[in-house]
Fold:
Amino acid sequence: MRDNSSATTIIRPVIPSRPATGLWWGLVGVAAFSFTVPFTRVAVGGLSPLFIGSGRAVVASILAAFALSLTRQRLPRGRQWARLAVVAAGIVVGFPVLTSFALTTAPASHGAVVIALLPAATATAAVLRGREHPPVAFWLVTAVGAVAAIVFAFAQSGGPGQLNWADVLLLGAVVAAAIGYAEGGLLARELGAWQTVSWALVLALPLMTGLAALSMAQQPPSASPGQWAAFGYLGVVSMFFGFFAWYRGLAIGPMAKVSQVQLIQPVLSICWAGLLLGESLGWTTIVGGLAVIVCAGVAVRVRLNPLRPKQNR
Structure:
């Protein structure tokens, strides 16, 4: 066969690799999420935490309803509604409301360190939900990360026995989001990635509308333009468009690699807290943040790449 025969010609692809594209989309999503904690801290300066937590969900839910309607998505069926309720309870109700109340007193950089537990907590929830059997190293590293976050919280609150109520709320927010992410990740295989988040938002709309109305009756919203802008970002970007980029990246994949991009989110949040809010970053914040982030990264890697027993040759 001749060298210039079409049968022997090698055609090299010119399309960029999918992993690189997935990582870039994931990075866009994480960058969007990294402003959530600092902007929540800005918004609570003029708006009630209940209004912020529920109102941002109402804004995102309306956008989600339009997106689902315009693209004519099919309705979830049967048990999928119950599973969507779990997702909604975690990422639409639990995380936004709890973090909003916590950040009325806790600095944004402090909140970012505690929330840095989220990747490891999500991996743990996925393990329990999927009935996986990770190696002992996974549980050890996850436990060390949790202890590091709690020790950091104690150090910032004045020592053992002085844990601030804001830290309890932040830890509760981490647990809620981890459960919501894990269940949402499984449900996304059936409904689609952004569709799962959108249906969860729509499902929670009646409850969040009621809570927003209640908060407005108790304390009519009154804020500066900057605080309203921060609230708008939380509703439009943090709870809606950010998820489009994030789940787009996970869908392109590889999911194992793209999901690890989330580990840089607390680093960015701490940086924004210093640059935008002028918060001083002490050594406890830096060391505590690094310890939690490293432990979360190792836990995710161990779960995704468990040690395999050597085979006899």
